[in-house]
Design brief:
Length: 540
C-alpha cells in the first residue's frame, strides 16, 4: 500500500522523503487503512479528499487519483489515464462503488522532519553515485592500455553478474524495484522470492545463492579489472588460470540450480537463470582460452592461487558482514515501527493521559500568549523558562505542530520568572500587551517575539531590538508576572518545558514531537468526551 501511495505523491512531484513517509504510514495504529493514509497526509499538510463514487460516475473524475474497490481487502490502484481506469474497473459490476483518494499537489511539506530525511536520502544518492563513478573510472584507467575482446567480454559479464547479484541481495533485504518485480513475475511458474527464500538455495545452510554470486563476481572484477591488467605477463596468466578453475567449479552449481528450479521447485527465478547464463558463458570463454592455448596447466602458481583464495574469502566475509548488519538494522527499524504503532494508539495514549494530573487552564483576564488559532479544540499549554535551552528546542517543535494542524491545535505559553532576575518575563509581557495584543496577526507576532528571544536569550540585545514606549505604565505587566508565577507555584511545576493537553499533563513517555501523529485522534477523543459529558448532564 505504501509503495502505491508514495508513487502517486511522487507522480504529483510532491517533495516528500520516501523513507519518512513509509515510516509515518507503517507506524500509524490503523495501518493499513485509508484512515492511516489520510492522517499522515494531514500531518504533512497535503490537502486531499476521500470520496465514494459509483462506477457509472467514475469517468467524471480528473486524473490522477488512487482507486480502491469498496470492499475489505481491496488493493489500491494508481489511475493516471483512461487506459488504467478501464483496466481497473472493467470486470466490476455496474452497481459497485469505489473509494477515491484525490491529492492536491503542493511544494511545501508542513512537517520539517521531512527535509532532514530528504537531505539524508540525497546525500546517500550522491555518495552512491560517487562510489559507482569512481569504481568505473578506476577500472577504465587500469584497462585503458590493456585491450582484447576476450578481456572486454569478461569485464562485461562480470559487471553484469554484479548487477544481477545486487538485485538478488536487494530482494533478500526487502528492497523492491518495480521493473525487477515485473520481470520476476512475468511468465508461467516464475517466482524469484520462492526460490531465493528456500532453504535448499543456501550453501552450508547459511550462505544464500545471492551472497555467493555477488562475492564471486566482485572477486572476479578485482582480478579481471585491476590485477590482470596491472601485473606482468606471468602474474596475469596465473590469475587467468585461477579464474578458469573457479569457472570450472561453477559448472555443478549451474547444474544444481537448474535441477532444483525445474525438478524440485517446479518454479523459476529469472534472475537466478541470468546468473546461470553468465556463468555458463564464462565457462565457454575459458574453454576457448584453453583450446587456443592462451591458458595452460603450467600457468598455475601456488602463491597466486593462495592469494586468490584469501582475496575471495575476505570479499565474501566482508559482504556477508555488511548484509548481516543491514538486516540487523532493518530488524531494529521494524521493531521501532511496531513500538511506535502501539505508542501512537489513541487507546494507549488516552489511558496514560487521563491518569496524569490536571491543571487549571483558565486564561488570565482573557489574555494568553498563544501561537495558532485560539479557538482550536486542542489547547496545549507549554510551561517554559525563558533561559531554558530545551524550551527553545521544544518551542520550535510546537510551532511545527501548529503549522501542521492550524485548525486543530493552539499552543499557549506560560512563562516562569526567575526570582533573581525576572526582567525578561516582565519585558516580554509588556511588549506583548502594548504592541501585539489584539492585533489581527497576534499569533504570528507572538511566535516571532519568542523565536527572536530564544535565538539570543540576551535581555539587553532583545530590549534594543524590541523597544518600548516608556510613557506607558507597567502595572498590567507586573500583574501578569505575578499570575504566571503563582500558577507555576500552585500547580507545582518545577521542570521546564512541561506540556499539558487540554489541562492534562503530557505522559512521561511522550514528547511534543509525538503529538504530530496523535493530534487528529486526540481532538476526536476530547470531542467525544465533551459530548458524553453533555449527554450525561441532559439525562440527569
Amino acid at each position: 500500500m505504501e509503495r502505491i501511495v508514495y508513487k502517486y505523491l511522487d507522480y504529483l512531484k510532491i517533495p516528500l522523503s520516501h523513507n519518512f513517509f513509509v515510516e509515518l504510514l507503517l507506524s500509524h495504529p490503523e495501518y493499513p487503512s485509508l484512515l492511516s493514509i489520510s492522517d499522515v497526509l494531514e500531518r504533512l499538510g497535503i490537502n486531499h479528499k476521500i470520496v465514494r463514487v459509483e462506477k457509472k460516475n467514475i469517468t467524471d473524475l480528473v486524473f490522477p487519483y488512487l482507486l480502491q474497490l469498496d470492499k475489505k481487502g481491496a488493493e489500491l490502484n494508481l489511475i493516471k489515464n483512461q487506459k488504467e481506469l478501464t483496466s481497473a474497473v472493467e470486470t466490476e459490476s455496474v452497481y459497485c462503488q469505489f473509494i477515491i483518494l484525490k491529492v492536491e499537489s503542493t511544494g511545501v511539506i508542513a512537517d520539517k522532519e521531512n527535509e532532514k530525511w530528504r537531505s539524508k536520502e540525497t546525500f546517500l544518492k550522491i555518495q552512491s553515485a560517487i562510489f559507482i563513478s569512481a569504481a568505473i573510472a578506476l577500472i577504465f584507467s587500469a584497462n585503458i592500455n590493456f585491450f582484447s575482446w576476450i578481456h572486454v567480454l569478461l569485464l562485461i559479464t562480470t559487471m553484469g553478474g554484479i548487477l544481477v547479484g545486487y538485485l538478488l541481495i536487494a530482494k533478500d533485504l526487502g528492497i523492491n524495484y518495480e521493473v525487477v518485480e515485473a520481470f520476476c513475475k512475468a511468465g508461467k511458474n516464475s517466482n524469484c522470492d520462492e526460490i531465493l527464500k528456500s532453504e535448499d538455495a543456501k550453501l552450508f545452510g547459511r550462505i544464500r545463492f545471492s551472497d555467493a554470486a555477488v562475492s564471486f563476481f566482485v572477486f572476479q572484477l578485482i582480478v579481471v579489472g585491476l590485477l590482470i591488467p596491472l601485473l606482468n605477463t606471468n602474474g596475469a596468466a596465473s590469475f587467468l588460470w585461477v579464474l578458469s578453475i573457479f569457472s570450472t567449479l561453477s559448472i555443478p552449481i549451474i547444474g544444481y540450480s537448474i535441477y532444483y528450479q525445474f525438478i524440485r521447485a517446479s518454479s523459476w527465478c529469472r534472475l537466478c537463470i541470468i546468473v546461470d547464463m553468465i556463468l555458463a558463458f564464462q565457462v565457454g570463454i575459458f574453454s576457448y582460452l584453453y583450446y587456443e592455448g592462451i591458458i595452460q596447466m603450467g600457468d598455475g602458481n601456488l602463491q597466486i592461487f593462495l592469494v586468490s583464495i584469501m582475496l575471495f574469502t575476505v570479499i565474501s566475509s566482508f559482504l556477508l558482514l555488511i548484509k548481516a548488519n543491514i538486516m540487523k538494522d532493518e530488524e531494529s527499524i521494524q521493531a521501532g515501527i511496531k513500538a511506535k504503532r502501539i505508542k501512537n494508539s489513541i487507546t494507549v495514549f488516552s489511558h496514560l493521559l487521563f491518569q496524569e494530573k490536571r491543571v487549571e487552564i483558565s486564561s488570565f483576564d482573557d489574555k494568553e500568549l498563544f501561537v495558532g488559532d485560539p479557538n482550536a479544540p486542542l489547547k496545549i499549554i507549554v510551561a517554559s523558562d525563558l533561559y531554558c535551552k530545551p524550551c527553545k528546542i521544544q518551542h520550535e517543535k510546537a510551532k511545527q505542530l501548529v503549522a501542521a494542524y492550524p485548525e486543530k491545535a493552539c499552543i499557549i505559553i506560560r512563562l516562569q520568572s526567575r526570582q533573581d532576575d525576572n526582567r525578561a518575563a516582565r519585558y516580554i509581557f509588556q511588549y506583548w500587551l502594548n504592541n501585539i495584543y489584539g492585533e489581527a496577526d497576534e499569533s504570528s507576532q507572538i511566535n516571532k517575539l519568542l523565536h527572536d528571544w530564544y535565538n539570543g536569550m540576551d535581555i539587553e540585545k532583545f530590549m534594543n531590538h524590541y523597544q518600548l514606549d516608556n510613557s506607558v505604565g507597567n502595572k498590567v505587566n507586573e500583574n501578569f508576572v505575578v499570575k504566571h508565577t503563582e500558577w507555576f507555584r500552585q500547580e507545582q511545576i518545577y521542570a521546564t518545558p512541561t506540556f499539558f493537553i487540554n489541562g492534562y499533563k503530557l505522559p512521561a513517555n511522550y514528547n511534543i514531537a509525538d503529538m504530530m501523529a496523535l493530534i487528529p485522534s486526540v481532538v476526536e477523543l476530547f470531542q467525544n468526551k465533551e459530548k458524553s459529558c453533555l449527554q450525561n448532564l441532559a439525562s440527569q
